[in-house]
Specification:
The structure holds two protein chains of two kinds. Chain A has a domain at 101-199: Cytochrome Bc1 Complex, Chain D, domain 2, CATH 1.10.760. Helix content of chain A is 41%, strand content 3%. Chain A is built from ten helices and two strands; from the N terminus they run ααββαααααααα. In chain A, strand 1 and strand 2 form a beta hairpin. Chain A is elongated. Chain B is an all-alpha fold. Chain B is built from ten helices and no strands. Chain B starts with 11 loop residues before the first helix and ends in a 14-residue tail after the last helix. Classes of the chains: A mainly alpha, B mainly alpha. At the A-B interface, helix 1 and helix 4 of A face helix 1, helix 2 and helix 5 of B.
Chain lengths: 214, 222
């Protein structure tokens, strides 16, 4: 009995020492007790895959292919992503001239969406108010960040701002891959609202609000 | 007879009983304690190819989760950002730092960075990120305080009972949609008020948004 108790005790302590507690940090990959169904022979996004020579499960579309999706509804008409349309390019069809005005109807909803998206994607550099004093400027990481209140940028057509968001400019990277088209136009609308916040005058307010201000 | 069975054999049945009982108890306790995702998954912290710190980017710089994980509101899969997303800032920030060599190489050649996946559901579970974040379930509920992690670890068991606990009572976790990526957000600083608000406001949100947190098999297993 004494031998058994000794073996038992040593066994328990040994298992506890080797296995550790629940939640201990560990570099070892998780133990899967029945792994046969957990890991099936199918593709998951962004995982390595030896079937293709480049080893990716998420293959890039071949150059020149056009994404087949449903149309986007803009002010009563349908726009497909492959069309040469101001909504997609920010330019007048068949030219390199930028459209002057946002092709999406500017509503309170669009501005709210624009504000949310601006805060996620733009504010880190351009700052919450658009003055170019985002966190990257504060930590001294970026030398030049454009202030969106610059006369130069205020005077740009909406299409040019859309184009800059899509493809980037100078040191700013392209945000087309991260931000869908509708959201880019929403951001353009919100940038205009930010600019207006510094350019507006008392005369722009409706009469009742103007009275309240005085 | 005593020549064949020595005296101690009288106690043998008792010894077998006690020994067997202790062994059985130890085995049951061991299985209960170790054979669960609370032990097998929680705490998994693999060494990543690039020492990316969520704490630096989120807690210090105040970036939103969706700056990088930009598809999370649209897709079932929350994407790992491409290296070009990193280069939006790192073409200027730490632009010659050796720690980022792999990122620069990936952005230049298109060769993916071999990140190690930490939260990996079994292949027979169809978890959808978009439906959760668009209905008021924050990242923090399943991924833990990622915004405070220098190196990400597996914070929650993500076991079936973990899913079901919430699916049977979503009001205990739901929050306003604009607070999804605000991982520190609480209804109130006072824990008692927060719990009470979570209950009353949570039930209201579940009702208003008609949250159908299904608990039938085919909700997740298809």
């Amino acid at each position: 009995m004494r031998v058994f108790l000794l073996v038992f005790g040593v066994g328990v302590v040994l298992v506890m020492l080797i296995a550790g507690k629940r939640g201990d940090l560990s570099r070892r990959s998780p133990i899967e007790i029945f792994p046969d169904m957990d890991r099936q022979l199918k593709l998951r996004p962004q995982t390595p895959n030896s079937f293709f020579p480049n080893g990716l499960s998420s293959q890039l579309p071949p150059p020149g292919t056009v994404a087949q999706t449903g149309p986007m509804r803009v002010a009563g008409r349908e726009v497909y992503p492959h069309q040469d349309d101001p909504v997609n390019t920010g330019r007048l069809p068949g030219t390199t001239n930028f459209v002057e005005l946002n092709p999406l109807p500017v509503t309170a909803q669009l501005l709210a969406r624009g504000r949310e998206r601006y805060t996620i994607y733009c504010a880190p550099c351009h700052g919450a108010t658009g003055d170019g004093n985002g966190i990257t400027k504060k930590i001294g990481a970026m030398a030049v960040v454009a202030s969106l209140h610059d006369k130069r940028i205020v005077e740009l057509p909406d299409g040019d701002i859309f184009n800059t968001i899509t493809h980037g400019k100078n040191l700013m990277g392209a945000y087309g891959p991260q931000i869908p088209i509708e959201d880019r136009w929403a951001i353009v609308a919100y940038v205009r609202a930010l600019q207006l916040s510094r350019l507006g005058s008392v005369e722009d307010l409706p009469a009742d609000l103007r009275a309240k201000l005085k | 007879m005593s020549a064949i069975f020595p005296k101690w054999t009288n106690r043998l049945p008792l010894m077998v009983l006690i020994g067997g009982g202790m062994t059985a108890t130890a085995v049951v306790a061991g299985v209960w304690y170790y054979f669960t995702p609370k032990y097998t998954y929680v705490g998994y912290q693999p060494l990543q190819p690039v020492a990316f710190s969520h704490a630096t980017h989120v807690e210090q710089l105040g970036m939103d989760c969706r700056y990088c994980h930009s598809a999370v509101e649209k897709s079932w899969f929350s994407n790992i950002p491409s290296a070009s997303t990193c280069m939006n800032c790192h073409n200027q920030v730490l632009k010659d730092d050796p720690r980022l060599a792999l990122v620069r190489e990936s952005a230049a050649t298109g060769k993916p960075i071999p990140w190690v996946q930490i939260h990996r559901m079994p292949d027979f579970v169809y978890f959808n990120h978009a439906v959760h974040v668009n209905r008021g379930i924050s990242c923090v509920e399943c991924h833990g305080p990622v915004h405070k992690m220098d190196e990400v670890w597996h914070a929650q068991p993500l076991s079936m009972s973990f899913c079901l606990d919430c699916h049977r009572d979503p009001a205990a976790k739901i929050r306003p949609l604009d607070k999804i990526t605000d991982l520190d957000w609480k209804w109130s600083e006072d824990p008692n008020v927060a719990a009470q608000q979570q209950r009353t406001q949570g039930e209201k949100l579940v009702r208003d948004w008609r949250v159908e947190s299904l608990d039938n098999c085919s909700a997740c297993h298809r």
